[in-house]
């Protein structure tokens, strides 16, 4: 790899629930590769997950401009798809700082901080209590 190609790799990290996605953008033909698999097969050919993952590119009209390489771990497919979206949006801000305004107005640069609440002692789940018996 020459020095010219190193400058053309843009990266961003996205998180959602327990999922972490490290996204790398490389100028190319628009293919999506997640953990070494084609994006369509990794996301189980779900049009919803594919749409969510590529929202930042679609919004900016850059669908066929960059190849997306992702290393996703933890959580489920929903969390990973949202993590990919955030990582992709952050990488696109590095590509061109003018993209930030468009992505921010659509809410794509906000990290969704909702995570699973911990279980408390004396309860069955985080908030579910055992049935109360008066007598």
UniProtKB/TrEMBL annotation:
<dbReference type="InterPro" id="IPR023035">
    <property type="entry name" value="Ribosomal_uS9_bac/plastid"/>
</dbReference>
<dbReference type="InterPro" id="IPR014721">
    <property type="entry name" value="Ribsml_uS5_D2-typ_fold_subgr"/>
</dbReference>
<dbReference type="GO" id="GO:0006412">
    <property type="term" value="P:translation"/>
</dbReference>
<dbReference type="GO" id="GO:0015935">
    <property type="term" value="C:small ribosomal subunit"/>
</dbReference>
<dbReference type="InterPro" id="IPR020574">
    <property type="entry name" value="Ribosomal_uS9_CS"/>
</dbReference>
<dbReference type="GO" id="GO:0003723">
    <property type="term" value="F:RNA binding"/>
</dbReference>
<dbReference type="GO" id="GO:0003735">
    <property type="term" value="F:structural constituent of ribosome"/>
</dbReference>
<dbReference type="InterPro" id="IPR020568">
    <property type="entry name" value="Ribosomal_Su5_D2-typ_SF"/>
</dbReference>
<comment type="similarity">
    <text>Belongs to the universal ribosomal protein uS9 family.</text>
</comment>
<dbReference type="Pfam" id="PF00380">
    <property type="entry name" value="Ribosomal_S9"/>
</dbReference>
<keyword id="KW-0689">Ribosomal protein</keyword>
<dbReference type="InterPro" id="IPR000754">
    <property type="entry name" value="Ribosomal_uS9"/>
</dbReference>
<protein>
    <submittedName>
        <fullName>Ribosomal protein S9</fullName>
    </submittedName>
</protein>
<keyword id="KW-0687">Ribonucleoprotein</keyword>
<dbReference type="GO" id="GO:0005737">
    <property type="term" value="C:cytoplasm"/>
</dbReference>
<keyword id="KW-0934">Plastid</keyword>
């Amino acid at each position: 790899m020459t020095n010219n190609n190193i400058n053309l790799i843009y990266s961003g990290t996205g998180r959602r629930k327990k999922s972490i996605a490290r996204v790398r953008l490389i100028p190319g033909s628009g293919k999506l590769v997640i953990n070494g698999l084609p994006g369509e097969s990794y996301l189980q050919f779900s049009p919803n997950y594919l749409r969510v993952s590529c929202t930042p590119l679609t919004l900016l009209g850059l669908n066929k401009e960059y190849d997306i390489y992702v290393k996703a771990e933890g959580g489920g497919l929903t969390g990973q798809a949202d993590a990919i979206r955030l990582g992709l949006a952050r990488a696109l801000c590095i590509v061109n700082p003018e993209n930030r305004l468009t992505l921010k107005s659509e809410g794509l640069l906000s990290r969704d901080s909702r995570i699973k609440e911990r279980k408390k002692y004396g309860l069955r789940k985080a908030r579910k209590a055992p049935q109360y018996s008066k007598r």
